[in-house]
Amino acid sequence: MVTEILEQTTTSMSKSIDALKRDFSSLRTGKVTTGIVDNIKVDYYGTLTALTQVGNVITTDATTISITPWEKTLLPVIEKAIQEANIGVNPNNDGDFIKLFFPPMTSDQRKEIVKQAKGMVEHAKVSIRNVRKEANDKIKKLEKDKEVSEDESKKAQDNIQKTTDEFVAKVDETFKTKEADILKV
């Protein structure tokens, strides 16, 4: 039973790291990535659909994203969705595809993005700590119900804390890498 709780804890904490990496992919660094438009939804015949599922989204160079819709009738809909998403650029529609031209980032913009990243890091750490609390509560309940001894409970809680520390360190390491990427000119 204790082993299962420890495995669930590790799995849940891994999911927190994965979510952080997904969140980081939406942040702009020195080089533009298609991850910037991943969260944009388009009204596709009455259904909100991800932009990447209604057209081809590619980066043509370090500052440009090109979006070619599968159907030309979607051009104005995609253009409107991009404007509403407020990603910092205006879409350029040439009748066949939409291009997004991102200007080079200023140092102030880079610092602001680092702040956003720090917020994402704090969210991930809170998530990891919540997983730790749930796991400790389960262990304490087992001890209270006399399913495990006090020593086993203490050892399990120590293992959970070690796992938590490892995952918090991974979060910090992931942030340092992303911060360096954002601040690199």
Secondary structure blueprint with pairings:
Elements: H1 2-25, E1 41-44, E2 47-50, E3 55-61, E4 64-69, H2 75-85, E5 92-93, E6 98-101, H3 107-144, H4 150-183
Antiparallel strand pairs: 1-2, 3-4, 4-6, 5-6
Helix pairs in contact: 1-3, 1-4, 3-4
Keywords:
2 domains, four-stranded antiparallel β-sheet, 185 residues, Topoisomerase I, Chain A, domain 4, alpha+beta, Gyrase A, domain 2, two-stranded antiparallel sheet
Can you put this structure into words, describing what you see?
By secondary structure, the chain is of the alpha+beta class. It folds into two domains: 2-26 and 106-183, Topoisomerase I, Chain A, domain 4, CATH 1.10.132.20; 34-101, Gyrase A, domain 2, CATH 3.30.1360.40. It is 58% helix and 15% strand. It is built from four helices and six strands; from the N terminus they run H-E-E-E-E-H-E-E-H-H. A four-stranded antiparallel β-sheet has the order 3-4-6-5, with helices on one face. Strands 1-2 form a two-stranded antiparallel sheet. Strand 3 (55-61) and strand 4 form a beta hairpin. Helix 1 runs antiparallel to helix 3 (107-144), helix 1 (2-25) runs parallel beside helix 4 (150-183) and helix 3 runs antiparallel to helix 4 (150-183). The chain is elongated.
